[in-house]
Design brief:
With about 400 residues, the protein is of the alpha/beta class. It has 3 domains: about 60 residues, OB fold (Dihydrolipoamide Acetyltransferase, E2P), CATH 2.40.50.140; about 180 residues, Vaccinia Virus protein VP39 (Rossmann fold, 3-Layer(aba) Sandwich); about 100 residues, Beta Barrel (OB fold (Dihydrolipoamide Acetyltransferase, E2P)), CATH 2.40.50. Helix content is about 20%, strand content about 30%. The chain has 8 helices and 21 strands. The strands form 4 sheets. Strands 17-16-15-18-19-21-20 form a 7-stranded mixed beta sheet, sandwiched between helices. Strands 1-5-6-4-3-2 form a 6-stranded mixed beta sheet. It is globular. The N and C termini lie far apart (about 55 Å). The mean pLDDT is about 95.
Length: about 400
């Protein structure tokens, strides 16, 4: 075990880690704030990176608050819960600015983020199970599950379900449960990791919950209304988790649009942006690799001028278009997809990102190939965590 060391936290970097210097090099530590004097030890060295463990705080940042969650530090999800919510925005803007400069070689002023209620802001939950059937989240730094009876990020309906499930003496084992709360009809929809057999009797304990499983996904499909658009959603298909940001995201994308002939929506999911894009474009092409998400989008948006294609972005034959909207996973745009976009020289690119580091990498590539970042907006979809969402507009120079 490493000796105890002392230092001052310089800043918070991508991932929510505090940076502190030691005689062995830079060390990254959770649960700290810039300017705090700390004692720590080095726990691990992996790929040349030193990971530390906080031992003691010798000075407290004025932005530090008492975490309200009893699982804080053990669950590992909300590593910003010790930070005043308004200051979380400051840190996220600094992380984004730093990534853009350090990785993307691009310097810009980041406008204020679209903020969210700090708690009860997620309608989706992916729970894992212990061998005894009780459900929760992965314990920090392990592969084991810590049972969770109440998560402060979830609405009351989800927490009622969690507490009731874990209170029963012998809940059945499903290694994963995907939960979706529909605020429009006050029901829960839960997708199970395998088909229930004798477990079906147990599921009757939850009359306000609709369960689904592979081959029975339709059972848990429900309707959401956002602005004047209607969507079909399911716990087994991705949908933006924070309902307080839905209209902000749609309004931001709308501010980048003008009437045109054709728009491509890459990684379109169940079609969150499809009806908005169709309001401005005569022809919209949605591209999504998850077959059930495409099925839901086709049911919801069966209009002339909307084409929904079930294929991976890497296999898509990119046609010419006036605008391409991309919403890739955290890994960003792979080289093949990026090259296809660059070859077509789309006049306008709307880029939705949930990872500032890979976005900064992709921004650099776009800049080097004739595109200019015209606007970037940040969204705090994930309060109490270091994660953020950005929507950006690129045009050809």
């Amino acid at each position: 075990m490493s000796d105890i060391k002392h230092g001052k936290i310089e800043k918070i970097i991508n991932g929510g880690w505090g940076l502190v210097r030691s005689d062995e090099g830079v060390v990254f530590i959770n649960y700290v704030l810039p300017g705090e004097d700390v004692s720590f030890r080095i726990k691990e060295k992996a790929n040349g990176i030193l990971w530390g463990e906080l031992i003691q705080l010798h000075s407290l940042s004025p932005h530090r608050v008492e975490p309200p969650c009893p699982y804080y530090g053990e669950c590992g999800g909300c590593v910003f819960q010790h930070i005043n919510y308004n200051y979380q925005e400051t840190i996220k803007k600094e992380i984004l600015t730093d990534d853009l400069l350090r990785i993307g070689n691009f310097q810009t002023e980041i406008p204020p983020f679209f903020l969210s209620p700090p708690y009860q802001n997620r309608i989706r939950a992916r729970m894992k199970a212990q061998p005894d059937g009780k459900i929760g989240f992965i314990r920090k730094g392990t592969n084991t599950v810590i049972p969770i009876d109440k998560c402060l990020l979830f609405p009351d309906s989800v927490n009622t379900f969690l507490s009731q499930w874990n209170a029963l003496p012998h809940p059945p084992f499903f290694h994963q449960l995907d939960i979706l709360a529909n605020r429009h009809n006050n029901r829960l929809y839960v997708h199970l990791s395998h088909t229930p057999h004798q477990e079906k009797e147990f599921l009757k304990n939850f009359p306000n919950t609709t369960f689904s499983w592979k081959g029975n996904e339709d059972a848990a499909v429900s309707s959401f209304s956002i602005k004047d658009f209607s969507y079909l959603v399911s716990p087994s298909a991705f949908f933006q988790v924070n309902p307080f940001q839905w209209e902000n995201m749609l309004n931001t994308v709308e501010s980048f649009l003008e009437p045109c002939e054709k728009v491509i929506d890459l990684y379109s999911g169940v079609g969150f942006f499809i009806p908005l894009l169709h309001r401005y474009a005569k022809h919209v092409i949605g591209v999504e690799s998850t077959g059930f998400a495409v099925t839901l989008a086709r049911r919801a948006f069966s209009k002339d001028g909307i084409q929904l294609i079930a294929t991976a972005a890497e296999k898509f034959s990119f046609p010419r278009a006036d605008v391409i909207l991309v919403d890739p996973p955290r890994s960003g745009l792979c080289k093949r997809v990026m090259n296809s976009i660059l070859q077509k020289k789309y006049p306008k690119i709307i880029f939705i990102s949930c990872a500032s580091a890979t976005f900064a990498r992709d921004l650099k590539t776009l800049h080097e190939n004739g595109y200019k970042l015209r606007e970037i907006r940040g969204f705090d979809l994930f309060p109490q965590t270091p994660h953020m969402e950005t929507i950006s507009l690129f045009t050809q120079i």
